[in-house]
Fold:
Amino acid sequence: MAEILAPVGGPAQLEAAVRAGADAVYLGTQGFNARRNAENFSGDSLRQAVSYCHARGVRVHVTVNTIVTDDELGALERELEVVANSGADAVILQDLAAVRLFRERCPGIERHASTQMAVHNADGVIAAREMGFTRVVLARELSLEEIEKLCKIPGIELEVFIHGALCECLSGACYMSAIIGERSGNRGLCAQPCRTDFKCGGRNFVLSLKDLSAEHYMRRLIDAGVASFKIEGRMKRPEYVAAAVDACVKARAGEPYDTELLRSVFSRSGFTDGHLTGVRNADMFGIRTAQDAEDSKAVLSSVTSLYRRERSSLGVDMEFSLLRGKPSALTVRLGNDEVTVSGETAQEAVNSPADAEYVRRSLAKTGGTPFYLENFTANIDKGVTLPASALNSLRREALEKLLEKRSEVTAHEVTPLPCYYGWGVHEPAKKQAVWARFSDLSQLPDDLSAYDRVIVPIERLKDDISGQLAEKLAAELSPAAFPEYEDRQRDMLKALVQKGLKAVYAENIYGVKLGREMGLCVLGGPCLNAANSAALEEYKALGVDEMTVSFELSMSKIKALGGYLPRGALVYGRLPLMRLRACPARGKKGCGNCPGYNKLTDRLGVEFPLVCHEKRFSTVLNSVPLYVGDKNLSGLDHILLYFTTENKNECSYITRACLNGDELGGKKTTGLYYRNVK
Structure:
């Protein structure tokens, strides 16, 4: 049976989720989880939460899904020990340092690829499987047909979001909160700038999506093979959790559920299923209105009935014995768990001797416990009886002992050796290489001698890649290659390899797999979010030959990274703040005469370029370019110039300025390189 996975931000939500009928919950500790502002759980409370859930047959998944820096690797080791000691069933991971840590030190706990890894196509799913993940939490931007296609991949479970808030950006690829406010979504502190009033094409709040509500598609997705249905909302109230779980339980069973109640409990101008249907237009967008808040207040008290009492959801077998002259006995069994208790001695019956039906009725009164009587057998001598009070006492004691037995937590074994070893101080290359990424071939300067690598999106490349480009070129694989485009891109790459292409540039794990499979040199981009030495070593093991590290790191931390994988930093360019499949410029009637280039304007009047990529996805670029070419860049193996909206002359001018260490005129930013992102 497909799992219903509920969000838990604290103990109140935990109780609501379990009592409403969740099969599993996901929650975080005080660090390294993507909702660091939730109440979350400490070491002791985490173990208590697992105990509570396991007693009731509910699995626990712990989120360890933020980007980690070198100075946090020791704390990550301690986090593993907390999670292992809790006896949790699975961990949800993003950073490859955490992947390596749990694989090597605690292999007994399941590893799930977080939606923060933005797995959105077949190569991504297969790459996750090869990395040792047992489950992938798919990107929320996929359609029903695309999910059905990915479900055919064997050897790994797929989890999909079924209800709750939608991010406008592909998860793990959003840097807006970090760049604008120094609060990184990749580190669990997103400030949600997308919910503020960005304007485009005469419309307001164009980065704020309505919430997802897709319970009506559960049966179809179950038939496709989806293993788990995830509800978003670790920052939400217990009433929200209970209402969403209850709706999912009913929808999974093919029963009607109250859509109006769901909307009232929490929504943003109603719901959307635009990603699942593929109808991605202006109807997908909405905000939390005053009326939404009023509707919520009106129904919250009524929702508490869904989780006021224990849910009797675990069927137990009971064996009862009442023999003359001997104490009564009751054995209760659930799976491999079994307890036996003794009670009062059998009494001679004066009027009505006990029979099996009389005893069964008393023992079946399991209300207030997680159990219900499923199978019952009795061995009763003739002419004896036992008071109802004695039977009730037997039942209570037996069920309490069974619950206590099932509450026992078994910690996962942790290997005693530390995971992080084997890398020394990085020795940078004697000559610093210069990489340049161009959005289009028309931007390329006539003389390419200044560049050691020239990166161009694969769809912009021509068949002829001879001349200056021959040895320098790397094809940029699409950072968002959804299934509808995946086969086409693979064919383009094969054709280019036949023409002599030797390298690819990848910003998603699927691209690392694809490039390696084609026998190409793989250059990793900053959106792979490599932010620590362990992650660099893991990417090296996966086949990455050189990495441009995350631009969410400070320059001092970049230079201090250890290991043997050559690395560099993006030193010029309008940073890609968001990757969007639901384009903010698209109206209800489609793209119309859109030229493929628009601007978003924030509430302060600042403009952000919005660039369309063949109507497959869009990118929001930062309002001003990053530039640190006039800073000390020693210690880097390469520097990356990231050209997006510039013309050929501007690309040449910026290249000269950077190579000469000159200042650059106009508005610009040094990004997070000399700030402290949280």
